[in-house]
Amino acid sequence: MHSYSVQDVERLHRLSRSTIKGLIDGGFVTPARGPRRQYRFSFQDLIVLRTARALTEANVPSRRVRRALEELRQHLPETAPLSGLSICAVGERVVNTRFGPMRLDDFVVTRCLEGVVHGLDLAQVPGAVTVSDLDALRITTRALLDTMVERAPGRAVELRVPPIAAVQCVEGPRHTRGTPPNVVETDPNTWIELAAGRIRWDDAVADGRVRASGERSDLSALLPLL
């Protein structure tokens, strides 16, 4: 069976020697030793190393990481194309997905967002029957509002999407009392369509789906978010 050196692991996973040693010392992987006592990693070791790093970077507790890796080892083939495997943490379990390593909550929000946007697309098809899930709409709206705050931090603009949430964003003078000088208000469906690039800012403002007031309320340069 082919084995891999520390140099191979550094090249394949872009891991530093100190990180590799830390994962070994932490008990996440137990490589064999070569004739000169050098570490020799199996294919399974490579997958486990990559997964251990991803899970620890996602702040998954060590105890859960070890349990996940034990289960992962039971399902890994002895050899396979390394690029064909990607890992996602789901609680204390590890499953293969078409995505890279993600925390469970991020993974669920991503899938929820995709489903809601796809549902809005289907609603534009004549004769299509769609069902709106209010919880999914709420999760997606909040996630995209959070993304806007990350992309354009600040307190100059109050972005309102009733009845779900309101956030402050965009650099500029901070509002503290009374009516904010820069306000953007829209409904959840319009906000998601704007963030996903399904409609243009100017069109949404023109037809009244977005109400924007104040000299800093034009968010067209920040959209779409996806």
Describe this protein with a few key phrases:
226 residues, alpha+beta, single chain, two-stranded antiparallel ribbon, 8 helices, 8 strands, 4-stranded mixed beta sheet, Multidrug-efflux Transporter Regulator, Chain: A, Domain 2, Nonspecific Lipid-transfer Protein, Chain A
Average pLDDT number: 78
The end-to-end span amounts to 44 Å
Order of helices and strands: HHEEHHEEHHEEEHHE
Uncertain regions spanning at least 5 consecutive residues: 79-96
**CATH domain class name of the largest domain:** Alpha Beta
State the strand order across the main sheet. Answer: 6-5-7-8
Question: In DSSP terms, counting alpha (H) and pi (I) runs of 4 or more, how many helices?
Answer: 8
Number of strands: 8
Tell me the fraction of residues in β-strands, as a range: 5-15%
The level of helicity is 40-55%
If you had to describe this structure to a student in words, what would you say it looks like?
By secondary structure, the chain is α+β, with helices and mostly antiparallel strands. The protein folds into two domains: 6-102, Multidrug-efflux Transporter Regulator, Chain: A, Domain 2, CATH 1.10.1660.10; 106-222, Nonspecific Lipid-transfer Protein, Chain A. 43% of the residues lie in helices and 13% in strands. The protein contains eight helices and eight strands; from the N terminus they run H-H-E-E-H-H-E-E-H-H-E-E-E-H-H-E. The strands form three sheets. The chain has a four-stranded mixed β-sheet. A two-stranded antiparallel ribbon has the order 1-2. Strand 5 (157-161) and strand 6 (165-169) form a beta hairpin. Helix 3 packs antiparallel against helix 4 (62-75), helix 5 crosses helix 6 and helix 6 (134-151) crosses helix 7 (188-195). It is elongated and about 75 Å long.
